[in-house]
Amino acid sequence: MQVFGDYGYVGATTAQIARAAGVSQPYVVQTFGTKEQLFLAVIEQALDRLLAAFAEVVETPPGDSGDTDSSDESTLAGRLGAAYVDQLEDRGLLLSLMHAFVLGRDPVIGRVGREGFMKVYRYLRDVAGFSPQEVRGFLAEGMLINTMVGLRMIDDVDTDPDVEQLLECSFEGKLDKVRALAAADVAGSPG
Amino acid sequence: MQVFGDYGYVGATTAQIARAAGVSQPYVVQTFGTKEQLFLAVIEQALDRLLAAFAEVVETPPGDSGDTDSSDESTLAGRLGAAYVDQLEDRGLLLSLMHAFVLGRDPVIGRVGREGFMKVYRYLRDVAGFSPQEVRGFLAEGMLINTMVGLRMIDDVDTDPDVEQLLECSFEGKLDKVRALAAADVAGSPG
DNA sequence: GTCATGAGTTATCAAGCGATAACAAATCCC
DNA sequence: GGGATTTGTTATCGCTTGATAACTCATGAC
Fold first, then answer.
1. CATH architecture of B2-188
2. Residue A34 Cβ under 7 A from any strand D atom
3. Residue ranges per structural domain of chain A
4. Residues 6+ apart with CB under 8 A from B175
5. With bands split at pLDDT 50, 70 and 90, how would you rate the model's confidence at B187?
């Protein structure tokens, strides 16, 4: 998931993935059959984890979460948004999904990507109880987050005040956490 | 721009680009020096066209545009949003940008992508006069549009009522136009 | 003990890729 | 009209990549 998130489906090589996993390259291919099937497994797992995080928010009554951040943690939308940002801890999760989302032309990845995206749409509408317009707004903010993460905008937050302004009004109280995650990222990347 | 939009930076081959341009593959490489420089040229041009479209909206007084769509064409944000959707006519423009945006790890594409994204941010804030929060909301809707276009969500609009609901409340009056553009897309793709 | 099985390796291949070199032909300049 | 320059081509190379084949080696059943 990390490697696909960093380099995309085409850009990531099975050799890189094998190195990150500490195994040999042929073993990666042998285990999953093909690179495409491995990517689909990654996408499926990423989606499962995301929806599981949403489910935990929906099933948990509000007010007892550890952090009392800003960006109204009181509303359901605010709590789901916080859970979404928390998925950044799973390195490559949101980015692997995003890479799948921009490959809709691919006959198999495109179908899986559309199904996955609509699965999230239906969850937010039917389980979280959002209106279509509310879902759309929520997804829009999510896609903006994905984009800024993919751009590694956090790398410029200290040198460009405009970047700081944008990230500040996007992540608000969670910005420091995002900073820490990005710092841990570069430290743990094997090059 | 079309080829990069369809297959991404890594996925698009110089041979595909050459075929789409009606020239030989080595000529593409020879003309732009390298595939990376060609992609950067595409990104630069895409950004120029997008900002030029925004500039035309800002400089044109409201009320005299040909189409009187919904999604309040009266406000500046609504007119800029319509101009953004109009960029779908430039096939691959928004998608090429999106592909660059998810490759922020790349040392050169990442830097250009961040600069380009922030150029749009500054334009909307300083020229269009948006507040940072307004810019963020506008960009979020743009990234959602990019994602749905990248997913080719329009392919499922007739078979999945939920997709129709999502696209309807996203594009509103412009949905028919988007449909027509997608139909022209598949017709004009050389495979 | 030994045989089967699962887990993993090394060695290697065929194909596709971006890039380079050498060449061909049209166009321009004077 | 003939050299120079631009605009393109064909042929080909070296490298990378995903995939395959054949082999090794623990482990456990009986």
1. Orthogonal Bundle (1.10)
2. yes
3. 39-188
4. B167, B168
5. confident
